Amino acid sequence: MDPAHADAPHAPPKYYSIWFILLVVTVVEVIVGTVALPKVVSQPALVIMALYKAVLVALYFMHLKFERKAMWIIAAAPLIFGVILAIGTHPDSEKGTSPFQRGDPQPWLEQDAGTHE
Amino acid sequence: MSEAAVAEHPSPAPRHAAARRPVPEHLQSEQRPLGAPWDKLMMWLFLGSDAMGFAGLLGVYAALRMGDETWPVPQEVLGINFTGLMTFVLICSSVTMVKSFEAIQRDDRVACWRWLLGTFLGGVFFLAGQCYEYTLLVEEGVTIGSSNFAATFFCTTGFHGCHVLGGVILLGIALARVSSGALTHLHANFVENVGLYWHFVDLIWILVFTFIYLM
Predict the structure, then answer these.
(1) Which residues in chain B are closer than 8 Å to A37, comparing Cβ atoms?
(2) Do A102 and B88 touch (CB under 8 A)?
(3) Contacts of A10 (CB under 8 A, 6+ apart)
(4) Are B59 and A89 in contact (CB < 8 Å)?
(5) How far apart are CA B208 and CA A50, in angstroms?
(6) B104-116 pLDDT, tens digit each
(7) CATH architecture under which domain B35-214 falls
(8) Is any Cβ of chain B less than 8 angstroms from the Cβ of A116?
(9) pLDDT value, residue B77
(10) pLDDT of A6
(11) Which of residues 30-59 of A touch B (CB under 8 A)?
(12) What pLDDT score does B160 carry?
């Protein structure tokens, strides 16, 4: 890419339009999150809307759209590690496998309570 | 300091310009890695590493939640409408932040001061709202030790709240610098970096609001 590209002047983004889109999507999110919809519908919709909003903020408010593509690698690094994290913790995420369920005996808490008595 | 005081201060020439040491060649603009000033690049690197901290917290939340069949429905415990209002204010403060950067770029310090003040007040409102929310939860018996849900909720939102507090302090410093005339279009990158941090805080809240409050 042209080295001067990142510093080249560009038309300022339409901040109020982005703001309006963010507000509308937030209202839709709250509606989807509070009305009784099947989880198979509501949860993917909520994730897509959240990621869409996050991308809008990064691209336009943080001006990532006008940075060099190499800068995008820095911004994308947490996503890559996030995927690794999700894969790594998946075996601990199966239903009923958590050793920390509410109501399970938690001897360390009882031990703490005993020391304070 | 008031808006009038901002207007009274003329734009000074770069202070101590003659006394500054020459910038080493490898730090000069032509040598900028990724075409960005060094301070902006460092801010991006910080935000990238900070995002991994939040990814860890949200990952813990997801792992504990999916493995626990007794997890409560967040909408029944948390006030969605009030938090929706906090989200609205935070999104608005992102717009005021980016407008303050636009203003300082054209050396309109009065407008920059006004937009910064709006952002600052938005951050203060968010923090006050979070304190109010925590107070209500504690009064209902939901404390950090009461369940895994409460523990992950307070850790994640508390960590984010600390970031908002840091942003409010940074905004206060920027406001003071504009008021004193020390911050002009020559230092617009300072406002840009504060803005990058503030938008990051907004971006993270968008994810936290969805994953912890709505899902």
Answers:
(1) none
(2) no
(3) A66
(4) yes
(5) 9
(6) 999 999 999 999 9
(7) Up-down Bundle (1.20)
(8) no
(9) 85
(10) 47
(11) 30, 32-34, 42-43, 46-47, 49-50, 53-54, 57-58
(12) 97
Q: Which segment of A56-60, B2-6, B137-141, B147-151 scores lowest on mean pLDDT?
A: B2-6
The DSSP call for residue B40 is H
- From residue B185, alpha-carbon distances to A97, B98, B103, B182 in Å are 57, 14, 9, 10
The answer to whether residue B147 neighbours chain A at the CB level (below 8 Å) is yes
Residues A65-111 have pLDDT tens digits of 888 887 888 888 888 888 888 788 777 666 555 555 555 555 555 55
DSSP string, A41-74: HHHHHHHHHHHHHHHHIIIIIS-GGGS-HHHHHH
Domain ranges for chain B, please list them. 35-214
Query: Treating both helix axes as pointing N-terminal to C-terminal, what angle do B188-208 and B80-105 enclose, rounded to 10 degrees?
Result: 160
pLDDT band at A5 (very low <50, low <70, confident <90, very high): very low
Residue B9 φ/ψ region, left for φ over 0, alpha for ψ in the -120 to 50 degree band, beta for the rest: beta
* Nearest C-alpha neighbor of B126 from the set B84, B76, B174: B84
**Residue B69 in contact with partner chain A when CB distance is under 8 A:** yes
